[in-house]
Design a protein that fits this description.
With 247 residues, the chain is α/β, with parallel strands linked by helices. Helix content is 45%, strand content 13%. A 4-stranded parallel β-sheet has the order 3-2-1-4. It is globular, with a radius of gyration of 19 Å.
Length: 247
């Protein structure tokens, strides 16, 4: 099945739009091949501010209406507790909320950006999507992450080479309760590293310290800029550590 064929069969749909590469292509295809589409962005403390900005930018470029749905994910006990199935409980809560909003707007089909490279066996959140009958056109059409990027580039989407960006909750070790304060520290720290020119990195919590993971080709630069990095992060952390294993 092609994306065109998918949207010929599902011409009217709501799209859970994160602002990332995958859901951006779904939104583009829905606009290109469908008859009516609306984007829904779930705004929580798990997402950094730039994700919402990217979602708003692309929705405007595609001339697709965007609804921002506010959600208090830390009010979901199992999500805040950060156990091994945190993602399941988080997705279940957020997409239940999304379904209610989309249904109230008259939509009976809800789509997400899961692609064929995503391993269902290692993604508790995908179980929640299945239970809630959320459709994943990229996965159903057999499109891998590399193909998604290529198609996005051909479509002229600025998100085509956007690095994968897991939610901020993944920076907190499993089993450590998640707080809004901890997430804010991570977001500030990662924003500072972006300004210093780093890409595709993570700032992970290690007790009261920050553990920075950068790609191998940025490791030397991270070492050279250790003073600047330390100054940018020291207000939030007792220590700033560079993970030599990288990511």
């Amino acid at each position: 099945m092609t994306l065109k064929e998918f949207f010929d069969q599902n011409p009217r749909a709501a799209v859970a739009f994160s602002g990332g590469t995958d859901s951006a292509l779904v939104l583009w295809a829905a606009r290109q091949y469908g008859r009516e589409v609306r984007a829904y962005y779930v705004h929580t403390v798990f997402q950094p501010a730039f994700e919402l900005a990217d979602a708003q930018k692309l929705a405007a470029e595609l001339n697709v209406p965007l609804t921002v749905v506010e959600a208090d994910v830390l009010a979901v006990p199992e999500a805040a507790a950060n156990g091994p199935r945190r993602c399941y409980y988080c997705k279940k809560a957020l997409f239940t909320n999304l379904w209610k909003r989309a249904a109230a707007d008259g939509y009976s089909v809800l789509l997400d950006g899961t692609n064929a490279s995503d391993d269902a066996g290692d993604r508790p959140g995908m179980q929640a999507l299945k239970e809630l009958e959320v459709r994943s056109p990229l996965r159903e059409c057999g499109l891998t992450k590399d193909q998604v990027r290529q198609l996005s580039k051909e479509a002229g989407l600025f998100t085509w080479d956007k690095p994968a960006y897991a939610c901020l909750a993944t920076r907190v070790p499993t089993g450590t309760a998640i707080t809004a304060e901890a997430l804010a520290k991570v977001e500030r720290s990662e924003a500072a590293l972006f300004k210093l020119g780093f890409t595709d990195f993570r700032v992970r919590l290690l007790g009261d310290a920050a553990r920075i993971q950068v790609p191998a080709d940025q490791m030397e630069r991270a070492a050279e800029l250790h003073d600047e990095i330390n100054r940018a992060l020291k207000a939030d952390f007792s220590a700033v550590l560079l993970d030599l294993a990288g990511r």
